[in-house]
């Protein structure tokens, strides 16, 4: 068993980077830093990050976490990263392109052969789909947000850079290349490229899939376990981060797998719900489970040999933020949403501000505020936004339960669960109790820290995650649950009736 005191754990999210010093023995977070991430939208449907600016934000967050702490006490570093980003690196690990984020839709409809042909099911070429499902357990969305679609776009639209690239990497690949000079990807990140054979609870690049979609196999990074050592912290990165050169950097996992560990819900039937800018529902499984129609699939989890069944939703807290900004109100208005009767007196808001994935894979879906009358106030708008997020989660949970079984417990993670009223409304929409972990906004930081602790101490992931404390329990209100049950039927009908209008507006 190795020695371990504290871990610098850095969670690179879509809109914010969070860093914390995680105690190796208790998983308590001793110091923290949070910095907004720079994102640009140079064209309609595009979403990029400048690598240099992103690294500066990482350094700033790390510096805040380390303030007043002796750097020599840091035993290792780990990064949790958002999934489905793509970047091209040259032989010297220099970025040839910006980091194309998971939000980017420029590759909509790619690869073409996957969505064309006479024989189709749910919009997919049936022969391609069957092969992808057999090997990977899933397939790229038609939205173009998956890494494979972005890789094909780069090959077709930037052939000069694509040919020059030594590595076609993800955000995980990029940050580990910055830290230790190695080109690595975690199994969950590799899984989401839909280029890896993930049968048997492990990921191996598929030569057939790479050849079919024109992705050179030799340009893909090495796949390594989340608890493997990626390498030693190199001098430049050590200087930037204010840490000793040569300390171990652990591979880590993507944000979803890290937050799943950080929820402490690792056993069969233990669900977790993440609410941040986006949202997702997750549960571990020993089998790859898939619902193509409702865009629920399985990624390799941080637990060796297991999968994480995920239903991901594009916007959740982002909808609430948008309403608050539009009305000039703050988060106190969210906490005061309970002053409005359940159902917001006939006002409904949908959070489909950037298309949707689960339970409808529709890049054209739009946010809607429906039922507005003169009696409604700004408070009603906030209440409707909160309820819209909860109803969207409840809609997705219906399909998750059909696929993966009833929950034995539900944990809440992500910054959204700092808002007690939001947590209670979600609990009522689901008609269940949600256990909110301590510092839910730091679930990714703590989960990554648990992976690093398991690596450095030679312990199990389960034993480390078992230390994660529950702060409080959000109980369902029976009256509100009845209202939301009926309202969910209306909510589904809104999408059904307007989906053709959404397409016409796109």
From TrEMBL:
Domain of life: Archaea
InterPro entries listed in its UniProt record: ATPase_NBD (IPR043129), Carb_kinase_FGGY (IPR000577), Carb_kinase_FGGY_CS (IPR018483), FGGY_C (IPR018485), FGGY_Carb_Kinase (IPR050406), FGGY_N (IPR018484)
Molecular function per GO: kinase activity; phosphotransferase activity, alcohol group as acceptor
Limits of the Carbohydrate kinase FGGY N-terminal domain: 7-262
Family annotation (Pfam families): FGGY_C (PF02782), FGGY_N (PF00370)
Kinase found in the keyword field: yes
Keywords: Kinase, Transferase
Keyword field contains Kinase: yes
One of the GO BP terms on file: carbohydrate metabolic process
CDD domains for this protein: ASKHA_NBD_FGGY_CvXK-like
Residue intervals of the Carbohydrate kinase FGGY C-terminal domain: 274-455
Family membership: Belongs to the FGGY kinase family.
Protein name: Carbohydrate kinase
Organism: Aeropyrum camini SY1 = JCM 12091
Organism lineage string: Archaea, Thermoproteota, Thermoprotei, Desulfurococcales, Desulfurococcaceae
């Amino acid at each position: 068993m190795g020695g371990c005191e504290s871990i610098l754990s850095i969670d690179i999210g879509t809109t914010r980077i969070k860093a914390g010093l995680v105690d190796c023995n208790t998983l308590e977070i001793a110091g923290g830093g949070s910095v907004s991430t720079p994102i640009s939208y140079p064209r309609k449907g595009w979403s990029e990050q400048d690598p240099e600016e992103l690294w500066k934000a990482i350094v700033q967050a790390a510096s805040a976490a380390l303030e007043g702490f002796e750097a020599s006490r840091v035993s290792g570093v780990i990064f949790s990263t958002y999934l489905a980003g793509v970047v091209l690196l040259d032989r010297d690990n220099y970025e040839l392109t910006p980091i194309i984020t998971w939000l980017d839709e420029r590759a909509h409809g790619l690869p073409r052969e996957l969505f064309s042909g006479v024989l189709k099911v749910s919009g997919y070429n049936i022969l391609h789909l069957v092969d992808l499902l057999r090997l990977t357990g899933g397939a790229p969305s038609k939205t173009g947000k998956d890494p494979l679609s972005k890789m094909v776009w780069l090959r077709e639209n930037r052939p000069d850079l694509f040919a020059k690239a030594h590595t076609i990497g993800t955000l995980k690949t990029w940050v580990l290349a910055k830290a230790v000079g190695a080109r690595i990807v975690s199994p969950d990140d590799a899984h989401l490229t839909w280029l890896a054979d993930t049968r048997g609870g492990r990921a191996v690049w598929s030569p057939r899939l790479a050849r079919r979609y024109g992705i050179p196999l030799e340009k893909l990074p090495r796949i390594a376990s989340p608890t493997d050592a990626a390498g030693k912290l190199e001098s430049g990165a050590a200087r930037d981060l204010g840490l000793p050169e040569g300390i171990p950097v652990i591979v880590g996992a993507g944000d979803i797998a890290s937050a799943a560990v950080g929820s402490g819900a690792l056993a069969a039937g233990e669900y977790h719900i993440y609410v941040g800018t986006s949202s997702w529902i997750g549960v571990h499984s020993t089998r790859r489970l898939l619902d193509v129609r409702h865009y629920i699939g399985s990624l390799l989890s941080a637990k060796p040999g297991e999968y994480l069944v995920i239903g991901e939703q594009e916007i959740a807290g982002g909808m609430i933020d948008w309403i608050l900004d539009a009305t000039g109100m703050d988060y106190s208005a969210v906490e005061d949403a309970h002053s409005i009767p359940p159902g917001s007196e006939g006002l409904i808001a949908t959070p489909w501000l950037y298309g949707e994935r689960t339970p409808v894979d529709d890049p054209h879906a739009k946010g809607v505020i429906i039922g507005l009358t003169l009696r409604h106030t700004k408070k009603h708008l906030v209440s409707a936004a909160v309820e819209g997020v909860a109803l969207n989660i409840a809609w997705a949970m219906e399909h998750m339960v059909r696929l993966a079984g009833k929950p034995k417990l539900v944990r809440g993670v992500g910054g959204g669960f700092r808002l007690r009223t939001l947590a209670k409304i979600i609990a009522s929409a689901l008609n269940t109790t949600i256990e909110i972990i301590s510092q839910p906004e730091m679930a990714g930081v703590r989960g990554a820290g648990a992976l690093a602790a398991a690596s450095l101490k030679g312990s199990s992931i389960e034993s480390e995650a078992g230390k994660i404390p529950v702060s409080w329990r959000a109980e369902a209100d029976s009256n509100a649950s009845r209202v939301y049950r009926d309202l969910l039927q209306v909510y589904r009908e809104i999408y059904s009736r307007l989906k053709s209008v959404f397409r016409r507006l796109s």
